[in-house]
Design goal:
Blueprint: H1 2-31, H2 41-56, H3 58-64, H4 67-91, H5 94-111, H6 114-120, H7 127-135, H8 138-152, H9 163-182, H10 191-204, H11 210-214, H12 217-246, H13 251-266, H14 269-279, H15 281-300, H16 311-341, H17 346-374, H18 378-427
Helix pairs in contact: 1-2, 1-5, 1-7, 1-8, 1-9, 1-12, 2-5, 2-17, 3-17, 4-5, 4-9, 6-7, 7-14, 8-9, 8-13, 12-13, 12-15, 12-16, 12-17, 12-18, 13-16, 14-15, 14-16, 15-16, 15-18, 16-17, 17-18
């Protein structure tokens, strides 16, 4: 339990930087002279950075290095992002801001492996609870990140507004470093142990080929669900503060909405684990889809500050965050079940999953501000963007439906095998 708590705190620091950077990226763009159509570019760079690190670094990093060294490498990338973003504020460079966010994304891509590491810290029957417990550490980050950004944005002169935001990312990085150093990782995650285990596995049982795993429904379905979940959640999140400002809401009001959104993303972690254990990851993903549907309805009917209140903004962003939690956590456990069957491919399966997931969602996030502008900005642009989300949600339901059908077929097959075995024993 001690290791899980430390992992939770390390994850909370990771996500605090995410909520801090993501929650303020749109207004930071405006503060350095960018326009509304560029407001989602830093977030797009962030997500593409996560994809890049999953593709180019993490497959060998977590295989050849200890878990501790791997996470510390990620923290180093985050510190580099801090430096670049601070420079971008000084010289008012949108390009450097995007590059800095790219490095933050790389750091987060490594940090997101805490959810996989949580499975390694506990017995197999605790896997779902461990993942959701660690992920629920984001509840702390839901407020720590945005409030830190708000409190420190004027730390320096008016010409350097929001530089304090990026200074705080370094503070969270230092805390993350301390928690990571205190975690006692199991010996099985040592690269030497992995090499011996891998060699033994190759000698005894080659197992299925990696390509057959990556083309299997047990990999493709949860990966697609993860990518869609991120896209459905992040597309409205990336422009919500800009949209709210355009229709009359204050910075404080939009900050409250983004905080409630982040709370929605991580608070369901306390119940998602038991639900996965009882109903299975596929059904929990379907629950996430139902929440997405509710959120889209709320967001489509959101009103300006003059015409109503921000209740629908709050509910819509909270519920879309909750839907992401169910869908993403369910898909994570689904993927973990796959590589438990072929542990020699664990790092590669994780890397492929995260890379494809972030590439897909990153492309949509890059496009979100342009979709918003193309729709006419303000409420018209907001609704246009949510119509696109409706399209993604329909695909989400189709993919989840396929997963549910496969679950039903597997359950029937298992019953038939059991009944056949019973009949054989009776005949004997």
């Amino acid at each position: 339990m001690r290791n899980l708590i430390l992992s939770l705190l390390a994850w909370a620091c990771t996500v605090s930087n995410v909520t801090l950077v993501v929650g303020s990226s749109g207004v930071v763009v405006l503060s350095i002279g960018g326009d509304d159509s560029a407001s989602s570019l830093p977030l797009g760079g962030f997500v593409i950075g996560s994809a890049a690190v999953s593709l180019a670094i993490t497959p060998w990093l977590f295989r050849l290095c200890t878990r501790r060294m791997s996470f510390l490498t990620g923290l180093g990338l985050g510190f580099l992002g801090t430096i670049i973003c601070c420079i971008s504020i000084v010289i008012e460079s949108l390009a450097l801001l995007v590059i800095g966010n790219f490095f933050f994304g790389m750091a987060t891509g490594v940090g997101f492996y805490w959810r996989f590491t949580a499975v390694e810290l506990v017995p197999s029957h605790w896997a779902a609870r461990a993942v959701t417990l660690v992920v629920s550490g984001g509840c702390l980050a839901a407020f720590a990140g945005p409030e830190s950004a708000q409190a420190t944005k004027d730390m320096f002169s008016d010409d350097l507004e929001y530089m304090g935001v990026f200074v705080v990312t370094a503070i969270f990085g230092v805390l993350n470093f301390l928690f990571t150093m205190l975690v006692q990782f199991p010996e099985s995650t040592n690269p030497k142990s992995n090499a011996i285990e891998s060699s033994h596995s190759n000698e005894v049982n080659q197992g299925p080929a990696l390509t057959s795993i990556l083309y299997s429904s047990d990999f493709l379905l949860p990966m697609i669900i993860s990518g869609l979940a991120w896209s459905i959640m992040a597309v409205p999140m990336s422009v919500v503060r800009v949209a709210m400002h355009q229709v009359g809401y204050s910075i404080r009001q939009s900050l409250t909405v983004i905080e409630i959104h982040f709370l929605g993303m991580y608070s369901p972690g306390f119940v998602a684990g038991p639900l996965i254990k009882q109903y299975g990851p596929t059904k929990v993903c379907a629950m996430g889809g139902a929440l997405f549907a509710v959120s889209v309805i709320c967001m489509l009917f959101a009103e300006s500050e003059q015409d109503g209140n921000m209740g629908l903004w709050l509910v819509g962003l909270f519920v879309v965050g909750a839907g992401w939690n169910f869908a993403f956590t369910g898909a994570t456990v689904w993927t973990a079940n796959l590589y438990r069957k072929s542990p020699m491919y664990k790092e590669k399966v994780q890397a492929a999953n995260d890379c494809l997931m972030f590439l897909f969602s990153g492309a949509w996030i890059f496009a979100s501000s342009y979709i918003f502008e193309a729709g006419g900005s303000q409420l018209d642009g907001w609704k246009t963007m949510n119509y696109v989300v409706v399209g993604m949600l329909l695909v989400f339901f189709c993919v989840t439906g396929v997963g549910l059908q496969l679950d039903i077929a597997a359950s029937r097959q298992a019953k038939e095998i059991t009944n056949t075995a019973k009949d054989g024993m009776e005949d004997a």
